[in-house]
Design goal:
The structure holds two protein chains of two kinds. In chain A, 8% of the residues lie in helices and 52% in strands. By secondary structure, chain A is mainly β. In chain A, strand 6 and strand 7 form a beta hairpin. The chains are: A mainly beta, B alpha+beta.
Chain lengths: 151, 515
């Protein structure tokens, strides 16, 4: 937990594309605010034709922190599997300059959803918290990505 | 040189300090200075406390303003939230009005909020975070949510949307709560500090008042003790002196001016006592002099009247009667004798007058006192058949420098007295010699003598002792005249006498060439 706070602090000083707020304690919470622009998406129709249980959706996008730089600071990959009643079970990772954050959970709408932060690598090793994604634009699809790391 | 000079400088400083603060004026200046310092310190503390109180009140007022601003912002944030959630549910533009109104007001309110919180580091940082959170909420969540609600209503009203909204609003509210906590703590601290300062101000004022009152009281007591009491004592002493008690003295103690007053008072009392004593002495002398003058008038009247009566009587006799040549001659001799007696009296008076006025003029010539003595002894020997005058002289001349006539008068006076004050007759021894550069002569009689109580006044003018009552003629000027003449010649005159055993008068004069 200490490493996460330290990592977030270090990242916020460089071009690590993080916006850290309130890391008052070594294990304190951190906030990472970035945007993503979807680059590609694929729909894998499994089983019955059309949208059905088991179908998979794969998305990839570039990550930006436009407060610091206009260049991409990382990549995101999200793989979702349709379950019942329009709900998708998703897993994804956000590759940031100093490590990865791995997220997972279910979502119904990609316009606004929340996933759990399951862990991470590098500076985000053993990270916990939540991810909130809010769509900003439809085409190209742009989203606000906010990580609330609790420790 | 320096090492020697230091004690002198220190001593001078000490003396100057003693003079400065040993006086009432110096002590009053010192007390006034201390009083002024005390008042100044009390006022300075009071002003400082009041200033702190004012600062505490200002902090409290600012805290209230911040609280009001926070409440306004909270209301606006609530309006934002209400607006977007209503719109997400109802999707009618009118539901967005609270959001739109709040969005317009928020920049101004945030600006005011930042202004109020910028003076304090803790609130400034927290206000910055609130500002950022609100702006992010609008830009990153509220506006996108409105757009999402327009095309994907389910997403805008879904659990994730509600949770995300709650998280953001909750985050903002937690920041507000944190800020309010800080502001409330500051407000409480300011109020407590203000209360403390107010208590301190009251305490300082009370202590300052007590100290000032005590100092004034002590100063008053000091003035009463150091000025009032000595002044009362001086007034009482002056009153007693006015009543004639010149023994009155004041204790010589106290501060400079009082000490000086006491010393001056005592000097004045001493001088008054001395003057009083002198006045009394002069008064006694005047009374004595008046008595002597009265006696003189009586004596002179008697002395003049007797010869004058003889002169007038025999003159009348010569004019009215036919007398023989022998009788005429005898009468004329009497008139001549009495006239000379009158002239002698007048000479004595004039001589005394000149002595008193310091105009006694002496002729300086070499005189043989032996010759003068022989002349005078012969003269007075012829006047009295009842007295045996014996003269004892050395073989050599007794030369002195002086006025022969005046010295003859001195010898004559001494011989005259020896004869007059030996009414029963007897021997009168006159001796003279020279020793130690001085010519000495003595006239010794065996007559009445002089009582011891009159010895100190025997050379006083007009003093005649009991002579007048004894019917012995005289003016009381002879011895006074003799002493004046002898002393004018640089000599001395004296006597030994006892009542009933006669007197010995002696004169010493510097021998000629011995001076």
């Amino acid at each position: 937990m200490r490493r996460i706070g330290a990592a977030v602090a270090v990242a916020s000083l460089g071009v690590a594309s993080l916006t850290v707020v309130g890391s008052s304690a070594a294990t304190g919470p951190a906030l990472i605010r970035i945007t993503s622009t979807q680059l590609r998406s694929a729909y894998v129709d499994v089983g019955a034709r059309g949208r059905s249980v088991g179908d998979m959706e794969v998305y990839t996008g570039a990550l930006y922190n436009r407060r610091i730089t206009g260049k991409s600071i990382g990549r995101t990959e999200l793989v979702c599997t349709n379950t019942f009643s329009g709900v998708r079970s998703c897993r994804g990772s956000y590759n940031l300059p100093r490590g990865k954050l791995v997220v997972g959970g279910t979502l119904r709408y990609r316009e606004l959803y929340q996933l759990a932060v399951l862990g991470g690598t590098g500076l985000y090793d053993n990270a916990r918290g939540s991810l909130t994604v809010t769509r900003i634009d439809k085409s190209p699809r742009r989203e606000f990505v906010v990580f609330r790391l609790t420790g | 040189m320096t090492a020697r000079a230091e004690p002198v400088v220190t001593s001078r400083r000490t003396g100057m300090l003693r003079r400065t603060f040993g006086s009432i004026a110096g002590r009053l200046v010192l007390a006034s200075g201390a009083f002024a310092l005390l008042v100044a310190v009390a006022f300075a503390l009071l002003v400082a406390t009041v200033d702190e109180l004012r600062a505490a009140n200002a902090r409290e007022a600012r805290a209230k303003e911040v609280t009001v601003s926070v409440l306004s912002l909270e209301r606006l944030v609530a309006d934002l939230d209400t607006g977007i959630r209503s719109y997400a549910i109802g999707r009618e533009r009118q539901f967005l009005r609270p959001f739109q109104t709040a969005r317009k007001e928020i920049p101004g309110q945030l600006s005011e909020f930042r202004r109020l919180t910028e003076t304090d580091q803790s609130t400034r940082a927290l206000a910055g975070r609130i500002d950022l959170e609100i702006r992010n909420y609008i830009e990153e969540f509220a506006i996108p949510l409105i757009n999402i609600a327009a095309d994907t209503p389910g997403a805008a009203t879904g659990e994730d949307a509600i949770r995300a909204d709650r998280e953001r609003i909750g985050s903002i509210r937690r920041l507000f709560a944190e800020l309010r906590q800080i502001v409330d703590a500051e407000s409480d601290a300011s109020a407590e500090a203000g209360s403390d300062r107010a208590r301190e101000a009251v305490g300082i004022g009370l202590v300052g008042f007590i100290l000032c009152a005590t100092l004034v009281l002590l100063l008053g007591l000091y003035l009463v003790y150091s000025i009032g009491r000595p002044l009362r004592a001086a007034a009482s002493g002056a009153s007693r002196i006015a009543e004639g008690d010149f023994t009155q003295r004041l204790p010589e103690r106290g501060p400079g001016e009082v000490l000086e007053l006491s010393r001056t008072f005592n000097r004045m009392a001493e001088e008054l006592a001395e003057r009083q004593q002198k006045l009394e002495e002069q008064n006694t002398q005047l009374r004595t002099s008046e008595q002597l003058k009265s006696e003189l008038v009586s004596i002179v009247s008697h002395e003049i009247r007797t010869p004058l009566a003889s002169v007038l009587g025999f003159t009348s006799l010569l004019l009215q009667r036919d007398v023989t040549d022998d009788e005429r001659r005898r009468y004329l001799e009497i008139i001549d004798q009495q006239g000379k007696r009158l002239a002698g009296l007048l000479d004595d008076f004039l001589a005394v007058q000149r002595i008193e006025e310091g105009r006694l003029e002496l002729v300086h010539e070499r005189i043989d006192m032996s010759a003068l003595l022989r002349e005078q002894v012969q003269l007075y020997e012829a006047q009295s058949s009842e007295h045996a005058l014996s003269l004892s002289l050395p073989g050599s001349a007794l030369l002195v420098e002086g006025d022969g006539d005046r010295l003859s008068q001195v010898i004559g006076n001494l011989l005259s007295n020896a004869i007059k004050y030996s009414p029963a007759g007897g021997s009168v021894q006159i001796e003279a010699d020279r020793a130690n550069g001085r010519v000495r002569l003595r006239v010794r009689d065996h007559g009445l003598g002089i009582p011891a109580g009159q010895h100190d006044r025997i050379f006083t003018k007009f003093f005649r002792g009991d002579a007048a009552q004894s019917g012995i003629a005289g003016s009381g000027l002879g011895l006074a005249f003799a002493r004046a003449v002898v002393e004018a010649h640089g000599g001395t005159i004296g006597f030994r006498s006892a009542a009933g055993r006669g007197s010995t008068f002696w004169v010493e004069l510097p021998a000629a060439g011995a001076r």
